[in-house]
Design goal:
heterodimer, A: alpha/beta, Rossmann fold, 2 domains, six-stranded mixed β-sheet, globular, B: mainly alpha, MetI-like fold, transmembrane (chain B), membrane (chain B)
Amino acid sequence: MSAPEDTGPGEPRPVLTVRDLSVQVATEAGAKTVLDGLSFDLRAGETLALAGESGSGKSMTALAIMGLLPKPMARISGGAIRLGDTELTSLGERVYRKIRSARVAMIFQEPMTSLNPLMTVERQICEVLLEHGAVSRSQAPKRALELLRDVRLTEPERRLSQYPHELSGGMRQRVMIAMALACDPEVLIADEPTTALDVTVQAEILDLIRTLQAEHGTAVLMITHDMGVVAEMADRVIVLRQGRQEETAPVRDLFAAPRTEYARMLLAAVPRLGAAPDRPEPADSRKIVEVDDLSVRFDIAGGVLNRTVARVHAVEGVSFHIRAGETLALVGESGCGKSTIGKALLGLVPWQGSIRIDGQQTRGRSRAAMRPVLRDIQMVFQDPGASLDARMTVGDQVVEPMVVHGLARGSELADRAEWLFQRVGLSPDMLRRYPHEFSGGQRQRICIARALSLSPKVIVADESVSALDVSVQAQVLDLMQELQAQDGLSYLFISHDMAVIEQVADRVVVMRLGQIMEEGARDAVLRDPRHPYTRRLLSAVPVPDPTRRRPDLPETSGVEEISPIFPVGQGPARVELTELSRRHRVARDAMAKT
Amino acid sequence: MWGYLLRRLFESALILLGITFVTFVLLYLVPADPARQIAGRSATAETVANIRDQLGLNDPLVTQYWRYLTGLFQGDMGRSYLQRAEVSSLIASRLPASLLLMVSAIVTELIIGLTIGVVAALRRNRPVDHTLMILSFVAISAPQFVIGILLLYVFAVQLGWFPIGGYGTFAHLVLPSVTLGLLGAGWYSRMMRSSMIEVLNQDLVRTARAKGLSKLRIVTRHVMPNAILPIIAMIGIDIGLFMSGIVVVESVFGWPGIGQLAWQAIQRVDIPVIMGVTMVSATAIVLGNLLADFVAPLIDPRIKTK
């Protein structure tokens, strides 16, 4: 592992050289090695991807290079990091400071929390320019404006005086990039830079990083869990697993012929758009969920008398149904209202219209009257860690719904808990443990077991696999489909991930700004999309195949600027759906354009 | 903005109205008889009854309250039963001293409290942190009259650095302000410490470090402004704490403020004065909260006044 890589005579000297790098973290059980003997070279203009699942040590590598390992818990326990001629591991804080951003810069996963909410964009950019003496004080604002232009931010003059909360996630990440590139660093470390962003925004940000890299000749170290992003961005890839360098290869070689078992498994687990197996056409069975003209609006109060002055039209006149044993997928970008619909089905937000669950109308039901309906519909959330109670054993939590509904007691509960655990593939001896003793995937299985405890007819799965590593994601999806095959469960599967949706859905509903843009059978919508918005969503998905370039993103028509907030008495123009075939409907406005 | 201000002022007026009612009823229910206090020990039952009649104390509660309220709306807070003066002029003559003490105590507690909080957070779980937190705990737990007498003994009696009591120069102001401010300093140091630690763990600090900023700049420009936000709302509420502290501290140091006035009035059941002081302190608390709500958006652009 420690042998230097071949440096051909024609190749430029690497900007960044990492040799045998090891990082240890102090735990209660003693020092734990989280990164073990990592070695690589990074050359100017090159993109090296560090790919791996959670706990692989990829973020630790980035922090080690930046000299930002959380002290005193983590420390470099061995190896060398050379930036040009400077050895970084032995550098004092005072000197290291002058290197950060000036020679190695970093962008992070969460553009929402990575910027200071109390400082304008201008001040945050100028700060880094002035700290490294890149420009004089009087020139700094001018340079900041140039940088915003460089990252293709719309209305750069206005952005300078704005605060982070006034910008969208994508804009914030552009500001982060502008800050990172302010001093023209030799190396840019991008730690999951698009993971928190919508897929179309992700495509734009990745494009931007590529363009800027070409302009400046920056070396990019791309840290990601997403093999699609790897295929799209990387020249070479290092696959990390539990701190060890599993495989290092040029990107095409890795995808064409992975040499290690783990890399093969990782690539096999990646959901690929267009590769999902056919699903048997569900029988025209009973409608379990019937939603008619559903609207959800949230009031915004203001004025002297604190009256409602405007409303957020989160969901506007949406109708759909789900049949027994069927999976309906709701897709769309953040803020499109897909999660709100899930909550409305369980009566967790106030709504208007009509919702029938297995024939029972739920409109106007009190909390108590809603209870029998909830036996038929349950929910599984995105973050299994946050949706379990840390102070209650998982066994108690799994059967809690049965206690609440008065369906079982005593030894019956214990039997039921064991049975549920077996169904979701967990061992019943783990029932007495607490949530922190489980991995993310196991916790999501526990949440599924809890949802199953009432033997519901429908489960609303709100981004239920989004927080999981791909290999775990694949297993949880398999489990969900198994349960469906056994019990004839229906799912409302809410997700932003088109590839996952293709795997599980029978029918797909595409939403934007609270309304349905396109809906129909899975193959109709995903393989023959008719609405420009659906097409845009699909073409933004990174393709996990380095030999196939993702098609360029269709231009937007300024749709992002539309806000779902309207004054009282007004609302968005209702989108009418046109039937293309028995199994495919699309918004009429799209038909006018095509 | 103006609409919001108007609404908030209206709400504040409602709150104050509620306070007048509650205080009035409570004082009405107090078993002591003000007429007996005024008449003195040797007075006959007839004299007492006469006084009661004169003051209208025999009227039903609602009538008395209405009379008080209509007076209040005309700026008349009534006359003291025992001192031959209007309540409003009594308060007006003593309010400046109390305000001076309060402002200087707020400044003291913020300087001491925030400094300790910042230092403790930056040295967390080290001996410095532990020592400071024990001290802050002592400041919170010790009764104010004990602290006041202790400071008085050490710095005035033994060392002779400050006058023993009274009012007039800056030197007179120091010990009462510190006594009054120490309690708040204890609270603020703890709040600031935990708020700082929370911000230090946020992503924005990692970004600031990745930018290559100096530690000093990170702490003063990025961490402290974010950490102080939750404290601002507390300062408004804090004025209420001061009002109870002021009664004690003014007595210990012989400070001629409304605290002393209140203390005398309570001892002698001088109801109009008690009502007056209560109204003044309630107004101070309400205004303090209002001020805090208007200062917060100046520092935090995410808060909009609507």
